[in-house]
Amino acid sequence: MPKLADIHEEYDFLEPDDRYRLLIDLGRDLEPMPDALKTDATLVRGCSASVWVYPMKTDDGRLHFLADSNAAITKGIIALVLQAVQDRPPAAIVATDIGAELAPFDLGKQLSSNRTQGIPNMIALIRETAERYAS
């Protein structure tokens, strides 16, 4: 997966329809999440589409997230969020302002409110997970 800044550089250059395609492509590149992990416990509340997030702690203490959605554009948004936190130490994730990392994409203006309403809930879940592992 390319760096968030590189993705933004390409995203900023594109027309709105092409931005949707880029998000869909990013979603397609997400690491597959086994269906067995898509449970009520991993479901992110408040999303218009179904979104699941499953955290795993790696041997070196970093957090790795598996995530999926039943909506293609939402999967792309998930890919952006994960790019800001994936495979980082819990304390680094807690210290990251994920919303600020995503701000250059201006998703609120590019996508409908239905598409973006669950982003804060997903960010909160990731932050809470990192806080639990950091303590």
Automatic annotation (TrEMBL):
<dbReference type="InterPro" id="IPR003808">
    <property type="entry name" value="Fe-S_metab-assoc_dom"/>
</dbReference>
<feature type="domain" description="Fe-S metabolism associated">
    <location>
        <begin position="14"/>
        <end position="128"/>
    </location>
</feature>
<dbReference type="Pfam" id="PF02657">
    <property type="entry name" value="SufE"/>
</dbReference>
<comment type="similarity">
    <text>Belongs to the SufE family.</text>
</comment>
<protein>
    <submittedName>
        <fullName>Cysteine desulfuration protein SufE</fullName>
    </submittedName>
</protein>
